[in-house]
């Protein structure tokens, strides 16, 4: 069976004492998929299956990244309620099979944690990251000074970025909710 370089690198991330078992499992998975080539995608799919994270064909997996500083005063209820109700910036998922697989902070004012966590979630089928409205607001919070760099770091991983969760964002962001207009 032929292994692509990226897949070999992923295999080498496994602890040495289980590496042979991982290799065997991935190769058996590839055979079931009628392929003789182990790609990064095949490896990731086998890993999801092994850990019970098999992604349904039409499923969209999303995560929400939020401001580390604001997380000290905000429990995230607005983001989660908007997600659960498919309201405001989650309305785009209405009628679709969506699963929230991550909800985390940026790690502080450099966004140091974002790339690493998104890269980890990518292994579990992450499709879209929503940047929480608190990272984009002009009032009552200060707009995230690292927003563009954080967004680019996510996009470099091939993940779609949606700016916002439950507040109006962009040029007219004032902290008012859609339903407060």
How would the blueprint of this fold be written?
Blueprint: E1 2-3, H1 5-12, H2 19-32, E2 37-38, H3 40-50, E3 60-66, H4 77-85, E4 98-105, H5 114-122, E5 128-131, H6 147-155, E6 160-163
Parallel strand pairs: 1-2, 3-4, 3-5, 5-6
Output mean pLDDT: 87
Strand order of the largest sheet: 4-3-5-6
Main sheet specs: 4 strands, parallel
| N- and C-termini, Cα separation | 60 Å
- Strand-pairing-aware structural class: alpha/beta
**Count of β-strands:** 6
Helix content: 25-40%
Shape: elongated
Relative strand content: 5-15%
Element-by-element helix/strand order: EHHEHEHEHEHE
Q: Whole-number radius of gyration? A: 19 Å
- Continuous helix count: 6
User: Unreliable segments (pLDDT under 50, ≥5 consecutive)?
Assistant: 170-181
Compact summary:
The longest helix has 14 residues, at 19-32. With 181 residues, this protein is α/β, with parallel strands linked by helices.
């Amino acid at each position: 069976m032929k292994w692509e370089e990226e897949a070999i690198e992923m295999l080498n991330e496994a602890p040495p004492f289980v590496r042979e078992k991982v290799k065997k499992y991935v190769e058996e998975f590839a055979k079931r998929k009628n392929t003789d080539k182990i790609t990064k995608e095949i490896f990731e799919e086998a890993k999801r299956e092994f850990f019970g994270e098999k992604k349904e064909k039409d499923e969209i997996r999303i995560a929400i990244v939020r401001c580390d500083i604001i997380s000290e005063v905000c429990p995230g209820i607005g983001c989660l309620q908007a997600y659960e109700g498919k309201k405001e910036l989650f309305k785009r998922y209405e009628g679709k099979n969506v699963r929230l697989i991550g909800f985390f902070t940026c790690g502080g004012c450099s966004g140091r944690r974002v790339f690493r966590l998104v890269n980890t979630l990518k292994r579990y089928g992450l499709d879209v990251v929503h940047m929480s409205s608190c990272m984009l607001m002009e009032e009552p919070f200060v707009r995230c000074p690292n927003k563009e760099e954080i967004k680019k770091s996510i996009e470099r991983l091939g993940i779609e970025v949606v700016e916002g969760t439950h507040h109006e964002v962009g040029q007219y962001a004032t902290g008012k909710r859609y339903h407060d207009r």
